Hints:
By secondary structure, the chain is mostly helical. It has one domain. Helix content is about 40%, strand content about 10%. Strands 1-2 form a two-stranded parallel ribbon. The longest helix is centred in the middle third of the chain and has 13 residues. The protein is globular, with a radius of gyration of 13 Å. It starts with 8 loop residues before the first strand and ends with a helix. This is Rhodanese domain-containing protein. InterPro entries: Rhodanese-like_dom, Rhodanese-like_dom_sf.
Amino acid sequence: MELPQDKPVAFICNTGNRSLLASSLMLNLSGMKEVINVIGGTTAWESLGYPLVTEEEEKL
């Protein structure tokens, strides 16, 4: 999978720990200019009332 070098890319996981590692690696090793880690992951995202789309919902 190719990630754009010229656009922001957000990383998210359940709690934010794995996405923090992934975003740090991408920032330091790939030359990407802007990476975003969603702090707290999908757990925090959902608790703030933001919508989540599951794989099953995407198929509809």
